[in-house]
Design a protein that fits this description.
Structural class: mainly beta
Largest sheet: 4 strands, antiparallel
Shape: globular
Strand content: over 45%
Number of strands: 6
Number of helices: 1
Distance between the termini: 18 Å
Strand order of the largest sheet: 1-2-6-5
């Protein structure tokens, strides 16, 4: 697996998170593909409900099943 970003902080009240994208993040990324996030040292596939790029190296993401700030806070870091 290739590291493509880091989840930084919560965004909004619907479970959104701000992410910092690395230069390795592909320009042709398909939203239908999962993004693997390490949770407790396990690679967990997460699917997007919403993805919005913010500049060249940032974005706002809402992952499926992480629809509250409490759930999304588990992903930070």
């Amino acid at each position: 697996m290739l590291a493509v970003g880091r989840i930084g902080r919560l965004f909004g009240t619907e479970g959104g998170v701000m992410i910092s994208l690395y230069a390795s993040f592909p320009d042709d990324f398909q939203l239908e593909e999962p993004l693997f996030v390490y949770i407790d040292k396990l690679a967990v596939p997460l699917f997007f409900d919403h993805f919005e790029r913010r500049g060249k190296s940032g974005g706002v993401v809402v992952f499926a099943d992480f629809d509250t700030t409490l759930r999304a806070a588990e992903l930070i870091g």
